[in-house]
Structures are given as C-alpha cells and as structure tokens.
Amino acid sequence: MKMIKVEDAVGCILSHDVTQIIPGEFKGRVFKKGHIIKAEDIQKFLEIGKEHIYVWEPKEGELHENDAAIRISNLVVGEGVAKSEEIKEGKVDFFADRDGILRIDKEKLFTINSIGEIIVSTLHNNTPIKKGEKIGATRVIPLIIDEKPILKAEELVKDKVIWVDEIKPKKCLLITTGNEVYKGRIKDAFLPVIKAKLGYYGSEVIRQVILPDEKERIIEEIQKGLEEKVDMIICTGGMSVDPDDVTPTAIKESGGELVTYGSPVLPGAMFLLAYHNGTPILGVPSCAMYSKRTVLDLVLPRVLADERLSFEDIAHYGHGGLCLDCDVCTFPHCSFGK
Q1: Number of structural domains the chain divides into
Q2: Which residues contact 140 (CB under 8 A, 6 or more apart)?
Q3: Is 304 part of a structural domain of the chain?
C-alpha cells in the first residue's frame, strides 16, 4: 500500500473507506472504498484532516479489510442469520433472520478472538431474538491484513459459531392446583400470565384444568395430557415444600424423568423440570404470578426451540440468575440469565 498526497491523487482509486466525525453531530462515511478521486474532492479530504490517501498495491498473501471480513463472516454465520449487504471499514453486521433463540459457540468464538487482528462480537448465548435484531458483527483491525490469521481461523473453526434456532409454536396443557383456587376462594391468576408468555412466542394454552391439592388427580391429568399428545405441560401452584403442596410429587410420580426440582434463579427457586418421552413438564412456582421476570422467562424459549435441557443447563443460571426487578424492564437485553 502506497501513501500519496491528496493533491496528487486525482484519478486514483481509494483503497479504503474514509470517515468523518463531528462530535455530537455526525459520524459516517464520506468516501467509499473504490471511489475515484476527483479534483473537487481534494478540499473535502483536507477539511477532515486527510492530507494523504493510501493506494493499495496488492501483494500475494495480503487481504483488504473488507475481503477479510467477508471470509470471517462466511466462516462464523450459520442458519437463521443474515449479514449486512454493505461492508464498511472492514465490518460486517449480523442480524436475526427469524424469531428464535440466539446460539453462540462460546469456545469457538474465544478461539477466533484469540488469534489477533480479527474480532467477532455477539450478544449473549441463549438470548431470545426477534427477526431483524442485530446480534453480532465481525471486524478486521488493520486496513491490509496478512492472510495468515484468516487461514488460521478457517483451520481451527470447522463449524458455525453464530446461529438462530427457530422457536416452534406449541400447544400447552395448563394444570393449576390449589384448594383455594379450586374452591373459588380466590381467582386464578396464572392463566393470563402463562397465556401471555406463550403467546409472545406464537404458542398457546389449549386447555386449563384447575385441581385441588390431590396428588392422584394431578397425576391423572398429566397422564391425560400426555395421551392427548400435547406439546408441553405446565403445572402451576403447590410448588413449595409445604406438606400440602403435592404438585412436585405428582410430577415425579407421573412417570417422567426429573431433571431438576430447584433452580439457582431468583425469582424462581422452586422451579421443576421433567420430561416424559420427550414431552417437557414444567412446574412453575407462584412468583410467576406477580414478578415481571422469573426462571420461566429463561427456560421457556429454550424449551420452545426443542432444546432438551439438562441439570447442568439449569445450574449454569446461577451466574446472572438474580433479577433486579428494574422499574423499566429491558429483558432479554439485561444481565438476567446471562
């Protein structure tokens, strides 16, 4: 790459984007890579402090920042992710191409960012995403980069690093327990909450059953739901360790595989997760009725994306599992669940 005075650059092809910054007013590109410099451009270059421009003379084993960024983006982007059509200053932005759960292979991401001179930046793994949201970007640091870091990345990273798993609509059976609700002493408050949270992801409660705190009847309704082949069963109420709260025992004795009873998430410590031949059964504690965000907000989208969660998956929520109950909730773009 050769540096020449702008006064001598008329007719030359600009090898890089040129950005102007006016603090508090403007930051943007004024000349694009590939622009053929004209006599009337010289004054503008001088006004933004550019007395010289660079003309790239390609050499074997070197890449322009934009070409390198394209190769990195092709390496890391998987299904459900769209790339920005225009590349600026060696940077490619990534956007969700569908509603779903953002997946990041954190080990491969670390591998790329450990190479040097190339970066990939993303949102957190397992963040619920809407189509069109920006989820990451890659950028090359030098204007002209040696090809070796790119080749090393391509050698070390064989699978995609960023993708979006689709959330699929599901039909849910809601089993609400509690003598106080069953006998009409208080009004059920779970149904509107569960309907709203499922509805946000295109899923629905197809039926609600309100039961007393009787283990055998809860087991019976769980079995009935499984026979109806519902996609998911959510049990609400009776999730504490009080002797008369029998919902956890009923879920355990219904024949499913218990993943966890208890989660390191607040609100949501008394959460239960089980699977019965692949059908998820969620035991949702009472905090879901009155707290804006709970463990349900962390687990539900992953379950709707057909991810089979393990005990380890739930245990990992301890780091970031404290909701601050902010006056203005920005979830999922906050620390909760990260």
Answers
A1: 3
A2: 65, 68, 69, 72, 90, 117, 118, 119
A3: yes
Note the pLDDT tens digit of each residue in 138-182.
Answer: 999 988 899 999 999 999 999 999 999 999 899 999 999 989 999
Does the residue 102 lie in any domain? yes
Residue 67 has pLDDT above 80, yes or no: yes
Q: Could you give the count of Cα atoms lying within 13 Å of 187 in the half-sphere of its Cβ?
A: 3
| pLDDT of amino acid 243 | 61
